Amino acid sequence: MCLAIPALVTAVLADDMATVSLGGVVKTVSVALLDEVAVGDYVLLHVGYALHKISEEEAERTLAMMAEGGLLEAELDEIAGDAA
Amino acid sequence: MKYVEEFRDRALAEKLSAAIRAEADPARSYNFMEFCGGHTHAIFRYGVQDLVPGNVHFVHGPGCPVCILPIRRLDDAIELAERHGVILCSYGDMLRVPGSKRRSLLSVKAQGADVRMVYSTLDALDIARKNPDRQVVFLGIGFETTTPPTALAIRQAADEGLTNFSVFCNHVLTPAAIRHILDAPDIDPEEAVHLDGFLGPSHVSTVIGSRPYEFLSETYRKPVVIAGFEPLDVLQSVLMLIRQVNEGRVEVENQYARVVTREGNTKAQDLVDEIFELRPAFEWRGLGMVARSALAIRPAYAPFDAEARFDLSEKTSREVKSCECPAILRGVKKPKDCKLFGNVCTPDNPMGSCMVSSEGSCAAYWTYRRAETLAEMAKDKAMAEQAA
To answer: Which UniProt keywords apply (chain B) (predicted)?
Structure first.
C-alpha cells in the first residue's frame, strides 16, 4: 500500500472530486489535497486521493516500471474491484 | 549480473552498476537502510543486491505500515468489530495479520463480525452514509501518505454531520522512527546496527517534503538520498550515497526531484495539523514505545475518534512465540534468523506481520529469495549443531 499510481484527470467534478482514467479503469477520486487540477493533468493517486501532480513523462515512466514489475495489475485489480 | 535482464533500460542499469562497483571502496563496507517497504520490494523484485558489490548492504527498515502496527492495537480493532458490533473498515493487507491467539480481522469476519475491506476512506464514508443505524469505524493505519486522506474523511464527516463515523487512528511518522533507530544503540548496545546512510521514502516525501530529514544530516551526521521506487532510481540513489560517504559529505539529497520538493504538499500538511495532534509516545511493533512518533485526533474532533467513542478493554496481547518480526523490523535480524520462516510461517499461513504484506521483509525473501534463504538456514543450523 506504499505505491501510488499515476492517473490522467479526465473530468473535474464538484466538491473537490475528479474522474481519472488509469489503465482502462475509470474512477472517481478526491483532488481535495491539491490546489488546482485541470483536465489533462497527471496525478499520483494513493488510496483514492490525488497526492501530487506529476508530469506526463513521469507518469509514463512510472506506469511502465509498474507494468514491468507486475505491480500495475495488482493495483488496478484493487481499484477496479472497489469500483465494481 | 543475473537479474539485469529484468530491467527495461538494461544499458542504464549496467552503467549504474558499473559506476557503483568502480566507486565503492573495497576496503570499507556500506550499510544503507531503506526505510520504506516499497523500496524493499523493488530491491528484491529486481535483484538490486546482485547489481552492487558485496560490501554494499541493504538494511531493511520498519517502513511497512501493516508490519509495524503493534498487536495490541490490532486486538483493539478486533474488539471493536466483535464486542462493539461496529462495521470495521480497513485496507486489505491489514485483514490477514494475526493478532493475539492467531485471530485476524479476516478470521473474526468469518465468524460473523462485520469487517469490510475498503480501498479508500471515501468508501468508508459511503458505508456510513448507507448504514445510518450502524456505527462505522475506519481503521486508520500508515505513514504520511495515508494520513491526509484520513484527515479529509474526518473533516468531511464533520461537515456532513455524520454521527455514525469514527476513525481508530494509528497513523505514524517516518522521521520520528528513523530518529529512534539511530538512538537505539545508545539505549541498548546489542541493538547497534551500523548505518552509513538512508534511502529516504519517495511517496511519503511528496507529502512532507525533504526538509523533515535534515535533522539526520545536521544532528546524526548521516547522509540521506530521497529515492524513487523505480529500480533505476534505487541504483542511482545508492551511487549518490556512496559518493557522499567517500567524500565525507553529509547531506539530504533528492534523487526523486522530479516529484519531491523541499516543502512537500503544504495543503496536505495543514489539513493534517488541523485534524491531528502528536501523541507523546506510541508503540511500534519491533521498536517498542517511540516518543512523538504518532498522531491522535484532536479533541475538537473527538466525536470522530473511535478511542473516545468506544470503551476499549485493557488487554494482554501476545506476539507469536519465536516470531522474529520485531528484531527484523529493527534491522537487527534477517528473515533467515527466524526459526519459523518457511516452515510454519508462509504467506498463506503467516505467523507475523512481516510475512503478510508484500512490502514486508519476510514476504520479499519468501517470494524472491526462498531457496537461498532456506539453504542459509540449513547451513547455520548445521554449524550451530557442530559447535554444540
So the answer is: Iron, Metal-binding
Q: What was the pLDDT predicted at B271?
A: 97
Find the DSSP H helices in chain A.
56-68, 71-83
Nearest CA in chain B to A69: B45
Cross-strand partners of B299: none
User: Chain A contacts of B123, Cβ < 8 Å?
Assistant: 48, 82
Residues 6+ apart with CB under 8 A from B316: B100
In this complex, the residue of B46, B119, B149 whose CB is nearest that of residue A78 is B119
In the numeric block, the cell 490525488 is attached to: A50
Gap between the Cα atoms of A20 and A31, Å rounded: 10
The torsion angles phi and psi of B166, rounded to 5 degrees, stand at -145, 170
The answer to whether the beta carbons of residues B61 and A26 sit under 8 Å apart is no
Cell of B210: 525533504
Q: Is the pLDDT of residue A1 over 70?
A: no
For the stretch B208-227, pLDDT in tens is: 999 999 999 999 999 999 99
